[in-house]
Amino acid sequence: MNLVKKFISFFFPSFCKICYKTLKDHEVLVCNLCYFKLPLLKNYCKRCGNINIQYEVNYCGNCVNNKLYFDKFWAGFKYEKPISDWILEAKFKKNFLLAYNLGKLLRKTIPLEGLLVDEVIPIPLSTGRCKERGYNQSFLIAYGLLGKKPKNNILERIKETKPQTELSYQERIENVKNSFKALKEKVEGKKILLVDDVMTTGATLKEASKALKEAGAKEVWVCVVAKT
Ligand SMILES: [Zn+2]
Ligand SMILES: [Zn+2]
Questions:
Q1: 158 and 124 within one domain
Q2: Which of 48, 116, 125, 183 has the fewest other C-beta atoms within 10 Å?
């Protein structure tokens, strides 16, 4: 740890969000003991994200029946407290540092292999919503996950969409249909990791993956902080 970091952590220590103990350098948001109290997601399908299974599998029955467009999937946690509360705080209460730290925390949960890609791309917000909110939480999560600024100009929203939370499953699919466009020259032949905060039905991530594949991406992997 360099001197500046030492100085900052001496005067502005971080505390565990669960037990309020001072955090050590390598600990993120929670201490090592509380980390294991988090709703860590262990048994899920590494292809489609199905969590209704008993074991960790590389594909499942769901994958066969769905056209996914993405090739691999990782999630850190189940969408349960306290993770769900932290995601909402990062998203709606302008807690930028929390969004960044959720990305750092996510990094602890996924295999190193997950980051062996050519580009890491956060799911972009629609321009309207980005202006309204002032920031994109997925960008900050990807920043924390990667440890450096991800590129922001590879994938674009080309259609204003309604917030997915207000819609039924079928409406979600319609709502995001053809809403993304990817820059061919930036993705062609590349392995891409798409980052988002939460995956619910996966409609948004599927559409974004479709746009990347149509622009020539070789593989698209998906990584989210939490899966509902
Ligand atoms: Zn703790
Ligand atoms: Zn599956």
A1: yes
A2: 116
Compute, in angstroms, the gap from residue 129 CA to the centroid of ligand 2. Answer: 31
Same-domain status, 8 and 60: no
Q: How far is the CA of 87 from the centre of ligand 1 (A)?
A: 18
Q: Which domain holds residue 147?
A: 41-227
- Rounded to two decimals, the pTM is 0.92
CA distance 90 to 139: 11
Contact 83, 39 (CB under 8 A): yes
What does the pLDDT look like over 29-73, one tens digit per residue? 999 999 999 999 989 999 999 999 888 888 998 888 888 899 999
Mean pLDDT of 122-145: 85
Cα 196 from Cα 212, distance rounded (Å) = 15
Residues 205, 193: Cα–Cα separation, whole Å: 11
Q: Which residues contact 168 (CB under 8 A, 6 or more apart)?
A: none
Residues 106 and 4 in one domain: no
Residues within 5 A (CB) of ion ligand 1: 16, 18-19, 31, 34
